[in-house]
Design goal:
Shape: globular
Number of strands: 9
Strand content: 5-15%
Distance between the termini: 54 Å
Helix content: under 10%
Structural class: little secondary structure
CATH topology of the domain at 257-450: Pectate Lyase C-like
Radius of gyration: 25 Å
Length: about 450
């Protein structure tokens, strides 16, 4: 066996070959199954760099201080594992199970953790370790021995970090798009420049965290503690915030949705120019761009905003009954409790939009057939949209992309979901009496009646 210098330690690590590792894994598997000859895997301070551990079961194993640089751990089971001060730089942990793992002081710089389960993982400070004369691992006794956990430049898209402990950690320039961060502890964490688009930060603790330059478009922040949080230059356009949070003085340093200076006159002019743009096929007028505006509570019944740009718009509680918004871009929009009764939303883009409690009764969300030689079909995109408790009774959702959407408690009675993509959607408690699901893709959907 060769040796490699340990990360965060003065002691070299023993290098394992793939065959040696496989032998340890077999004994650990026997241990997990309570079979004769089984031994819990002890890989502390071992060098496992570049090895393939895809799909292996190392739950409860000791990997403290291990070097897993660029190791392949896709789909691995590391639940309850001890990864204290482990080196996981550039490791591939896509879809890995890290629930309740001890990652204190670990380095995950550049690691891939897309769709990993990291519920209740511990990423707080760790202490540098070394072996003493008896061969036991102990803490160094000199100053600056604390090792801060790091996830800088990691890719953690769609991962579940609910109730994780990430206090004081470095999470800079990290991609946390669509991650579940409910109740996660980020106190004093450095999230500078990170992407938290579409994240669920419900009841998370961001006290004294640094979010300078971070992107939180479409993030749900209800109940999130933001005391003394640094939001300098952070983008919160389209973020879902409580009324009390919006009054927080530190939020003024963030980039927020802005109201129109003269809403009645400005809106009228925009709608007139947009109507001319539609009627002339784009030769006259101007395509409406209402992105990032706050039009909460506005009465816009029956307006024609087909193909308009409404990215990150706030229309909370607005009245939009009978509107025409075919092929409009409403991605990351805040549409909570808005009224879209009988609206024309064919081919609309509602990706990551929040429509909690929104009334879409009788709305048209089917496809648009583009008049071209190819006969292209433009489907409505509701991927990862939040439609909890939304009213979708008798709505047309044919061929709609609802993959990963939250439809918990939604009223879908009489809705047409033929050929819709419901893969990974949450339909827990949804009312589906009389709904049509012919040829719909329901792979990995939850809450569907059996």
């Amino acid at each position: 066996m060769s040796s490699a210098q340990g990360f965060g330690s003065n002691t070299p690590r023993t290098k394992l070959t793939q065959s040696q590792l496989n032998a340890i894994l077999l004994r650990h598997l026997a241990f997990r199954k309570s079979q004769p000859g089984g031994v819990r895997a002890n890989l502390k301070m071992r060098d496992l760099s570049h090895l393939d551990l895809s799909g292996i079961d190392l739950s409860d194993a000791d990997l403290s201080g291990a070097k897993l640089f660029s190791a392949r751990l896709t789909g691995a089971n590391l639940s309850n594992a001890n990864l204290y001060a482990a080196d996981l730089r550039l490791a591939n942990l896509e879809r890995a199970d890290l629930r309740r793992a001890d990652l204190r002081g670990a380095c995950l710089r550049g690691a891939v953790l897309t769709e990993a389960s990291m519920v209740e993982v511990d990423l707080r400070d760790g202490t540098l370790l070394h072996y003493d004369s008896s061969g036991e691992m102990t803490a160094h006794q000199y100053e600056n021995a604390v090792l801060t956990s790091e996830m800088t430049a990691a890719t953690i898209r769609g991962a579940d970090l609910s109730r994780a402990k990430i206090a004081n950690a470095f999470v800079m320039q990290t991609d946390l798009t669509d991650a579940v961060l409910r109740g996660t502890k980020f106190m004093r964490a450095n999230l500078t420049g990170s992407n938290l688009t579409g994240c669920d930060l419900t009841d998370a603790d961001l006290t004294e965290a640094n979010l300078t330059g971070a992107t939180l478009s479409g993030a749900v922040m209800t109940g999130c503690a933001i005391n003394r949080t640094n939001f300098s230059g952070a983008t919160l356009i389209g973020a879902i915030l409580d009324a009390a949070q919006l009054r927080a003085p530190n939020l003024q340093a963030a980039v927020l949705a802005k109201p129109l200076e003269n809403p009645d006159d400005d809106l009228r002019d925009l709608l007139v120019a947009h109507a001319a743009w539609i009627e002339s096929g784009g030769k006259e007028g101007t395509r409406a761009d209402l992105s990032t505006l706050d039009l909460s509570g506005r009465k816009l019944d029956g307006v024609n905003l087909s193909a308009a740009i409404l990215n990150c718009i706030t229309l909370r509680g607005a009245s939009l009954a009978g509107v025409s918004m075919a092929i409009a871009d409403l991605s990351l929009a805040d549409l909570r409790k808005a009224d879209f009764t009988n609206a024309d939303l064919r081919g609309v883009n509602l990706e990551r939009a929040t429509l909690t409690g929104t009334n879409l009764t009788g709305a048209q969300l089917g496809p648009v057939h583009i008049q071209t030689m190819s006969g292209h079909v433009w489907r409505a995109n509701l991927q990862r949209a939040r439609l909890g408790m939304a009213l979708l009774r008798n709505a047309d959702l044919r061929k709609a992309n609802l993959s990963g959407a939250n439809l918990a408690g939604a009223d879908l009675r009489g809705a047409n979901l033929s050929e819709a993509d419901l893969s990974g959607a949450d339909l827990t408690g949804a009312a589906l009496d009389g709904a049509t699901l012919d040829n719909a893709n329901t792979a990995e959907a939850i809450g569907l009646p059996t």
